[in-house]
Amino acid sequence: MRSLRPDALRLSGHVVVGLGFAVVVYLIHNPTFYYLVWTYFLIIGDSLFQRPGAREIRENFRWAVATFLFGLLVVPVARAAEVYLTPHTLDGFLRECDLWLRLDGFAWTRLCWRSRFACAFLVVVYNSLPVALGAAWIVGRRIALWRGCLIGGILAFFIYLMCPAVGPHRAFQNWPAVTATLLSSVPPDPRNCVPSMHFAWTLLAAANVPGKWRWLFGAFAVLTALAAVAVGEHYFVDMLPAIPVAVVIQHLSTERPSRRA
Among 40, 135, 231, 241, which residue's CB has the most CB atoms within a 10 Å radius? Predict the structure, then answer.
């Protein structure tokens, strides 16, 4: 029997790990984790079809595993801490801000729901953030992207504690009807509205790919912002602070050449 080359053997091991993740996701049955598994295999697929070198395979495997474990272990713990530390939210205030800006997110949702295709499409767009980040890594291979994701996650946790909100579809009864009213009791859901890190991370993806790809990832970022409001996870006003937050994160995550004395 012919033995496998070291890089092929290593890649085979990565695939086995990915299949193990798939089993875990099947047992947990959380739709969010499905996208993490797809992202894992997307990045490992890059090793198989595009970059057969051992160094690139190791890099792909490291970031693929880190992405999955971050979503599986770190995010749930952070969300539980947010719920415990912030019993009250600012959802009513954020809704008023939207209306003051003449940006009625509930009306936008009702408009999107008129088309079954548009509704399904926006749900897929919103949930595809991990896949988009994986694709941005494949296209640009810039460490600043993953460093920015880590910095953004840490920074967002503290901002969420200062501006807690669960999103319109959780905070309002009969959402998105015109007669929707704010619930008197806040549900134990993640306080992760302000800023919209979905939007911020897609902006980071667009900033860390080559120029010819930026229009595509930029368009995806805009679609993500619209989808986040349409599915009831965010208010329109959540998108505004995401832009400066993304700029700050990109600045912090980008390596700058050292100056000589």
Answer: 40
